[in-house]
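REQUEST FORM: STRUCTURE PREDICTION
Request ID: SP-0412
Submitted by: Lab K.M.
Chain count: 1
Length (residues): 151
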Amino acid sequence: MEFLFFIGLLCIGVIFGTLNERRHFQRLRDDEAALSHILQTNLKRIPEPHSDLQEGAIMVSGNVVVALDFFKIIVARLKSIIGGSLRSYESVLERARREAIVRMLKEADAVGATAVHNIRIEFSTIGGQNPQHPGGSEILAFGTAVKARNA
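STATUS: Completed
RESULT:
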């Protein structure tokens, strides 16, 4: 009986987790579309056609801390027995990376920036009982926001 209860809880967790993940991906797509007017590059220097058109450099950043949920940990541990890529972790990290970039772009948009250059992404693990199984991850996206001279 307890086993069926555990399986039922596991199924409920997977269903609600999947729905939440889909809603988050949709919100990210909407936010990315709304911020698509901001030019984004990972170049250290402003690209030549735009270099004389921009001013007012300011550093912007977006930060996200993501905890690994219980159900993804169970799936990942089962998958590690068989081998292969851990898609459950991949989706968590993709959502975190995209969320950090969106937050950085929202900060740039708030200061009136038309472009963000030299975008960098840093990743670190936090918590957990040992380095093999971290409790969560932090993703930091940062870059240099600039405004168009005529803006």
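NOTES: Residues 20 and 82 are 27 Å apart (CA to CA).
Reviewed by: T.R.
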